Amino acid sequence: MKLASYLLADGTASYGIVNESGIADAGAALRARYSTLRAVLASGALGELAAAANSSSPVDPATVRLLPPITNPDKIICIGLNYMGHIAETGREKPSHPSIFTRYPSSIVGQNEPLICPKVSSWFDYEGELAVVIGKAGRAISEQDALKHVAGYCCFNDGSIRDFQRHTTQFWAGKNFDRTGSMGPYLVTTDEVPDPEALTLVTRLNGQEVQNTSTGDLAFKIPELIAYLSTITELLPGDVIATGTPSGVGLFREPKLFMKTGDTVEVEITGLGTLTNPVQAES
Question: Phi and psi for 29 in degrees, rounded to 5?
């Protein structure tokens, strides 16, 4: 299933299944019990969602405003330096353990929503990524059981304000400017993604390909990440793990290539759709 969260024309927040006819809305039938898609995942109610969607009339996607598929995650956990090609372009060695930082939900927008280029910097970089969404809670999850805890996958853009990222050894400052990252266009459930490490990730800036890598190049594989992170904290339904970006980021190009007002950035991953965002100046 391809699951989307969105605002209807009257401003009501809802969710449903994306199909060839449009969007089969499930929120109208389920919102009283499950206010968000995260609540559906937490209750293990995907079957109810599918039944509600099947009995609804299709909604024209052109009439809704797409939101990040998980609008209210408890945690957005991001992994740095996690593609071997990207590690090489930075001139570093593979880390002994995953490099971890967090993003706030306020830093993430959905499909077709503008990324905001802040007034204080012109070093606004793209980072196409594969995001993993947790569907089943767990602590100290084994690598063997890790994928059983995944609800699905989606495209992610870990937009980065590079000069602020370099202010200290901590990445947080460059990763949490409001509305600088994105996630979407929808969440694709695991039954449609048999092998998340056999996907092709492509990032384009104004139609020009700037990243193209197999997710098989991940330095720390998805089961390793889930096992490591769940050793530290309980992973909850709706938690997002952004698994890192491949080589080709703007910071390590000569000349450097950063996003600017008027640009359009796309992240496309096999079977997960294309996440598209314009870039807009901070007002």
Answer: -85, -25
pLDDT mean across residues, the chain: 96
Sign of CA dihedral 108, 272, 223, 169: negative
CA distance 134 to 71: 14
pLDDT class for 83, splitting at 50, 70, 90? very high
Give, in order, the Cα–Cα distances in Å from 12 to each of 31, 94, 183.
10, 46, 20
214/37 Cα distance (integer angstroms):
29
* Residue 254 exposed, middle or buried by CB count within 10 Å (0-12, 13-18, 19+): exposed
For the chain, the domains span 2-67, 76-281
pLDDT of residue 95: 87
Q: What is the DSSP string of 60-78?
A: -GGGSEEE-SSSS-S-EEE
Tokens of 47: 């079957």
Q: Which residues contact 36 (CB under 8 A, 6 or more apart)?
A: 5, 13, 15, 70, 71, 72
What is the CATH class of 76-281? alpha beta
The upper half-sphere exposure of residue 24, i.e. CA atoms within 13 Å in the direction of its Cβ, equals: 17
The confidence score (pLDDT) of residue 6 equals: 98
In the block, which residue shows the tokens 């990730």?
A: 201
Answer whether residue 92 shows pLDDT above 90: no
Amino acid at residue number 72: N
